Amino acid sequence: MANDMQSIKRRIKSVESTKKITKAMQLVATSKLRKARKQMDELRPYYSKTQEVVSEILTSNQGMVESPYLQENRQGKTVYIVVTSSLGLCGGYNANVFKAMSEYIQVEDEIYMIGSKGASYLTHHQIPYHDQYLHLNTTLDFKDVIRLVQELTKRYQNHEIGSIQMIYTKFINNLTFQPYVMKLLPVDTKNFEKKSLTHKATLFEPDPQTVLNDLIPMYLQSVIYGYLVESITSENASRRTSMENATDNAEDLIEELLLKYNQARQSAITNEISEIVAGANAQ
Question: Which residues form a coiled coil (predicted)?
């Protein structure tokens, strides 16, 4: 009985130590989530305005604007930009992205991976990928985003790429986030149909096509960076939720172990009393 009590006490101490770790990680994730949400909210007006201008050009000049960014290269490959995490303990965040990858990405497609967890997944499945921007989710260097867009748009204009899509995790709220596939190139005019125009008549100089060809790379830079920050926000929200659940589970387990310990202790006391009484009666 004493050995059982000692074993339960050791388990309680072990769970309490784990609880301290998960609680600390929950607080860190909460702090990072607050910072990421602030950054995401500050970015939204910028790329929303860029989307608005692109929408205005495409809508007001529908059928008259010819741009290589509006035409799909049927002979080129499909390129996917995939955003995963570089750290673990974030619940089903990465698993959901991997599921979306398996549903959409074909064998002949190319992958630009962001996040070391995704790189490990592809390496394990022996799937080739581009790793030049693997740590972009930790550095958040906008210069790297510019280089990525320049590389992809150049390949797109050379007809090496048929279309560019991005798999990221869309942030809805602190408890809801889901993987989403966004088509970047060719620009899908359907993405802008619900955009309301602030200017009904706008004069573009020298012409809408030239403006659009210069604006599309800026548009891609802003949305890729915005979706990257949104994925990071979702990652921290998922990690905070996971650590909160782990802390709650640790508290429940401690309560169960304390109950077992008290039962064992009460049983030991009862046995001792019974032995004392039995010895007294024997005398």
Answer: 240-267
| Unique residue bearing structure tokens 């891609």 | 220
Nearest to 147 by CA among 137, 157, 133: 133
pLDDT of residue 174: 86
In this structure, are residues 140 and 55 in contact, taking their beta carbons and an 8 Å threshold? no
Coil, helix or strand at residue 269: helix
pLDDT value of residue 100: 95
> What does pTM read for this prediction?
0.84
The more confident residue out of 92 and 210 is 92
Tokens representing 234?
A: 């979702």
| DSSP-assigned beta bridge partners for residue 130 | 112
Query: Which two three-digit tokens encode residue 49?
Result: 């305005």
166 - beta bridge partners?
Answer: 81, 182
Q: Which amino acid is at 209?
A: Q
Domains of the chain plus CATH, in order, are 22-242 (3.40.1380.10)
Rounded Cα gap, residues 46 and 225, in angstroms: 11
